[in-house]
## 1
Amino acid sequence: MLSVENITVCYGQMKALREVSLEVSTGQMVALIGANGSGKSTLINAISGLVPIAGGEITWEGQTLKGLTPDNICREGIIQVPEGRKLFPAMTVEENLIMGAYHPNVRKQAQESLQKVFSTFPRIADRRRQFAGSLSGGEQQMVALGRALMAKPRLLMLDEPSLGLSPKAAAEIFDIIRGLNKEGMTILLVSQEVMQTLAITTYGYVLENGVLALKDSCDRLLEDPKVKTSYLGL
Ligand SMILES: Nc1ncnc2c1ncn2[C@@H]1O[C@H](COP(=O)(O)OP(=O)(O)OP(=O)(O)O)[C@@H](O)[C@H]1O
Ligand SMILES: [Mg+2]
């Protein structure tokens, strides 16, 4: 289980997160929603150890992540698919995927993992020798997801996996995410596609200007007047 307890993150004088708490239990898929600039990516980056926390604590399976570097945190199985995918455009699909299995504890199984990723995403298997930069947005997102799976995540954090995708490609990605969770993957899903996100998750958190504004089961969030007006445009 991941437990974020009252964390504060500052960029210089600006507090991007103020005493934010969140939990993701094993096997659960949790939603994190909020407007642009509310601090969603900052929270994911804090969990990954990419931005320092100024207060509070993050624990994983009961152990603090304090003092761990991002690569130590990856080694714990906490893996993110970053906003904007961050592929290596001049490397092939296969080379990008192999980069996901960089850590020695997953490297030995890289070929086996690669076959598994290709069976999950047949479309990118057909394009394995193509440069990642030449793929469509939806295919690139599949490579980014596949690269994360190569690291054998125990917690998968997805930052805006449907950003910039057509409704059809976005629906395909959401189906894949739901399938991964059904197979037992623990997931923290950040998305502005609030309706689709709350439809596939069980519990959700709403960030507003760096502060946790709401947390509830997704069924109740979908009925919440604030969520309806601010995020669902109803
Ligand atoms: N590296 C940084 N240096 C300074 N300020 C930053 C940095 N990264 C983010 N911020 C600021 O922190 C706030 C939260 O940003 P963050 O990227 O976490 O929001 P977000 O909810 O992910 O937004 P979006 O939906 O647009 O991706 C914003 O005001 C942003 O300008
Ligand atoms: Mg973001």
Note: The radius of gyration is 17 Å.
## 2
Amino acid sequence: MNRRFSEYTTIAEIVTQYPQTRRLLEELGLDYCCGGKTSLQDASQKAGLSCQEVLTKLNEKIDQSDSKESPPKNWMAVPMTELIRHIVDIHHTYLKENLPRLKNLSEKVYRAHMQHHGDMLQKLKQVLETLRIDLEMHLAKEEEILFPLIREMESFANNQGPRPAVHCGTIQNPIQQMEYEHQSAGELLGQMRKITSDYQLPADACRSFQAFYEGLQDLEQDLHEHIHLENNILFPRALQLERQKVS
Ligand SMILES: [Fe+2]
Ligand SMILES: [Fe+2]
């Protein structure tokens, strides 16, 4: 095998250690957020790709970025409080701005194209609306319950605050709930891809139609990165801290 990882390495381990591979994994259709716990071999097989070819491409990407780009931020090495601030400032803000914008755009495009693409746009609009409602509740739960608890745990572990009162028994319970909600958000993104045949624009698409599809693809990419930071980095670190220091 190669020098960096093997076919048994999980996708989460690869993308956590080498975040520059994210875009390539996305292009290859390998799920690195909700499906991060899958081995490279199983994920490649599921995507209908040769594991050896995927390994070669990943190594090429890392070699290129080693020589050209500045190293990406290592989120394993900064306080969790800083990672939480990044998640909220960048990814939660992105969703709060873009979910209402995409809802308006979906209605505009539906009204303009209902004659030829009514069924498809209606389905798409409904899935997007479910995603918007689910995610807005999800963000609130993270910001009001889980993230403050992780911040308190970290302060306690650094002797900078009192022992946190974990009303839910262990932090594992809210984390499992958040992972479950990530899974269903991922499924809704998959449904939107299916409905739009991988965001293939129809020949008569106008500029708004184009902006709508671009916005949905951008949302997908941002949400994948967001879920990766939570599922593969923040949550495992919080669980480890609870096991070591807090309980
Ligand atoms: Fe989040
Ligand atoms: Fe989340």
Note: The radius of gyration is 20 Å.
